[in-house]
Amino acid sequence: MLAWAVALSCLTGALWLAVHHPVSPLFSLVLLCLWCAVAIWQPNVWLWVVPACLPWLNFSPWTGWVVLEEFDILMLATLACAYGRMAWFGLQGRQLQMPALAKGLVLVLVLLVSGLVSLWRGLEDVGGLALDWFAGYGDALNSWRVAKSLLYAALCVPLLQATSALELVRKQTLFAVGVLSGLAVVVLSVVWERAAFAGVSDFSVHYRTVALFWEMHVGGAALDVYLALTAPFVVWALATARNRMVWLLAAVLAVLAVYAGLTTFSRGVYLAMGLPVAVLALWLWRQKNVRNSASERQFWRARGDVVLMIVLAVEVLAVLVGGSFMAERLARSDQDLTSRMAHWRSGVGLLNSPADWLLGKGMGRLPANYAAQVPEGEFSGAVRWQQGEKGLWRKDGYVVLAGPRSNQEIAGSYELTQRVDTTVNGQFRVRINVRVLKSTRMEFYLCERHLLYDRSCLAAWPTVKPVPGFVGWQSLTFPLKGEAFDPEPWFGHRLKMFSLAVSDAAAVAEIDALALLSPSGADLLVNGDFSQGTARWLGVAQSYFDPWHLDNLALEVLVERGLVGLLALVALFGYAFWQLLWGSARGQPLAPYLAAALFAVLLVGLVSSVMDVPRVVFLFYLMMLWSLPSMNFRKGSMLDCDACVKNK
């Protein structure tokens, strides 16, 4: 009965999200139905599809969703089909073997309960649940945004269990291939992004890649954490390749993954990708079965390993020596550490009471509390849709675009943006219906931009003044000026983004309607009258990200979940790590690679936030949950698992 309840709840949620998709509700419904059919037909295929789709199944710059995403639809549909199948065929007892799982399940349950308490405190902190399809980081649904990855992972526990070594090998192989598929998409997107906006071999330009992690529209380390999590699986691909072609593909992926990590220009990523892989290599060398196979391996593999190591070494030197950006960042290390420690102190200072220290401020409440309580820690701007009087263009509301509360230095660094599809050059114009209470400077841009960094722009910087004796809407039109965009590259279309911002502190502009007119006079914006709220629009921060991230895994958990939540996470992490290295899970074929991935997250979490990126955090939780044993493996059982692979 419980399985039916979970299945129906998840299916309802998936359908509800698909129907309300801001861009393509019908297409979303069709894909949802097709995926459900596949998931019911092949119940284990989700282990490949979910990690393969995880890094790219989010289209926030096109939809305007922040707390919701397309990945939610996939996960809810997956869980609905899995639990529905369990209920229909009566597989609960077979899938979930309580005696073997008891210890780990207790820790999962403790973490889940602490998370639910933190979710409740987050909703209480903001004044209760308020449903808004386009809620932001200061709204109630941001608590759900942060909590959902834990809930999804907990519901996946029964789906990960296996009743035989052969089934476990098949499941973990599917999962590993899925992770590698997702990583391949990410590294290819990194190469495309740098080719289009920075230059593949230009390591001096101040450009840090984002790939397809649009959560980084307010900064953060989504790409960093993802690369740290998935790098050990490239070692798995190389170690288990059974022929030259598979090994060659894995080697190419290794070269691209290292390139992606290097071009983050993040010292934390360098440590989190390099050290765990080195430790993993030592661990594999110490395994009896790896040593035996190494003495018998083909000559081509030995030669290929040497060539690959040389290529990777040259790649590292090219980035570190062939450009100035990383050298500049390394020179600022002491200054960055000082500012980061001050940032950490400000974050911990949000814990004002014993209840805060014990249970935290609430999931998803760090940004709002930091901006409200930390001096000079305010948001650099804000966007809000206000339902009210009819505007000049027959709509039901308008957008309120605000600059920072008081800090003029960060004014203009928070923009309201929309993807624009155009390849033409010529005179672009902006038409706006706006209302201000005092003279307000604004900025308008049409830029070649992936997400955070501009390549080239057309711009206007008007000052909007209130009409004396008249408090109402003004209709203004002005041209965007600048050099023409370069011709499109041979490898594809450069993404373009239209953006606007208020460039004065303590200033507000109310916008009734907005149009970006092409040289031919066509309006390039969608929902420019805001009749659908802020659908298709996304707030983007540039250069200043302090309120949104605390840049430390332990401290962000402490602030939002308290000591109880931190200890619960540490306990499950420690249990998983122990089980994978020395416990009953050590016989799993992915055990050393999962342990290396968890270690990598621990390292990147020393200097970066982790828990504020739901998709990546779900993958982190899932890797920890693989340590829950569904059966006991005897010592040396990886030999048996290799036999299982050979006999499939």
Description of the molecule:
- It is a single chain.
- The chain is an alpha+beta fold.
- It has a domain at 382-541: Jelly Rolls (Sandwich).
- The chain has helices spanning 2-19, 25-41, 46-53, 60-63, 70-89, 92-95, 98-126, 141-155, 157-160, 165-197, 222-240, 244-262, 267-286, 288-296, 299-321, 325-331, 333-348, 354-359, 366-373, 553-581, 591-604, 614-625, 637-646, and strands at 382-387, 397-402, 414-420, 429-435, 440-449, 454-460, 463-464, 474-479, 496-502, 508-517, 538-541.
- Strands 3, 5, 6, 7, 9 and 11 form a six-stranded antiparallel sheet that branches. It has a five-stranded antiparallel sheet with strand order 1-2-10-4-8, with no helix packed on it.
- β5 (440-449) and β6 (454-460) form a beta hairpin.
What features would you highlight for this structure?
single chain; 648 residues; alpha+beta; Jelly Rolls; 6-stranded antiparallel β-sheet; 5-stranded antiparallel β-sheet; globular
Output the CATH homologous superfamily of the domain at 382-541. Answer: Galactose-binding domain-like
Whole-angstrom Rg: 26 Å
What is the name of the CATH class of the domain at 382-541?
Mainly Beta
Shape: globular
Mean pLDDT: 90
CATH topology of the domain at 382-541: Jelly Rolls
- Our estimate of the beta-strand percent is 5-15%
Number of strands: 11
| Count of separate DSSP helical elements | 23
Helix content: 40-55%
Low-confidence stretches are: 92-96, 631-648
Distance between the termini: 35 Å
Structural class: alpha+beta
Q: Report the major sheet.
A: 6 strands, antiparallel
CATH architecture field of the domain at 382-541: Sandwich
